[in-house]
Amino acid sequence: MANTILLFSLCTVVLMVTASPNDCGGNRYAPACIEPQLVATTADIDDLPNHPEKLLIDVREPSELAATGKIPTSINIPLKTVRAELSLSSEAFEKKYGRKKPTTDDPIIFSCRSGVRAGQAALEADQLGYKKITSDLVGDEFETGIPYACRSVKTMSIATYEEVLDLPNHPEKLLIDVRNPDELAETGKIPTSINIPLPQLEQGLKLADDAFKATYGRDKPSTGTELIFHCKMGGRAQKATDLASSLGFSNARNYKGSWTEWAAKQGK
């Protein structure tokens, strides 16, 4: 049986473009790589109390749950322990979590903050033989005590080729190439983009306004500026998006097509 991959959003349903396996670093459950038709809805999560056979696993750290609360019916298994915990015996799992251990044919839903860790957990479960896996793309932020009421709408959507092509008409948007300088020297760059290699991104986004402009020749983006990250294939751009979001940039997303798609469509 083919694995069933779904996404759900407590705030909004986001359709994603489909990427080839090579674009996903071997993880077809990565947020940017889930197929558009495999999207679960908030209604599915609301209905979980009526489906005890479905297990919702929050893979965030306990400190994150303490700060935000948790989705009802979920259990907490931090990402770094997912493989070990799903390998427990049925008796040990039920004793530890108070829930029956899922069989490889039972549905499992993974949830985190932004979707990246949920995708990694889904890959771990897939490798263990679980056949019905669901991954939360947009996250589980909700007001403690008010299940499913979104604190903020987080849109980890993917910028399209057409949007990137239109960027010269939108100077308020900032396209950041997170490849290394030697890669740009070899291939060139997308017009309007600035280059901040991924290892330097956190430091760059924390620069003072004047230092940022002096370094990159553009005004420093505010936390509300629409940031679009790209790289060669998409993996580093996804990491950059997640990093920017963790620093408070609420409109960070990535251009899934990246340089590879851009160059192909430009005939380069």
TrEMBL record:
<dbReference type="Pfam" id="PF00581">
    <property type="entry name" value="Rhodanese"/>
</dbReference>
<dbReference type="InterPro" id="IPR001763">
    <property type="entry name" value="Rhodanese-like_dom"/>
</dbReference>
<dbReference type="InterPro" id="IPR036873">
    <property type="entry name" value="Rhodanese-like_dom_sf"/>
</dbReference>
<protein>
    <recommendedName>
        <fullName>Rhodanese domain-containing protein</fullName>
    </recommendedName>
</protein>
<keyword id="KW-0732">Signal</keyword>
<feature type="domain" description="Rhodanese">
    <location>
        <begin position="50"/>
        <end position="133"/>
    </location>
</feature>
<feature type="domain" description="Rhodanese">
    <location>
        <begin position="169"/>
        <end position="267"/>
    </location>
</feature>
<feature type="signal peptide">
    <location>
        <begin position="1"/>
        <end position="19"/>
    </location>
</feature>
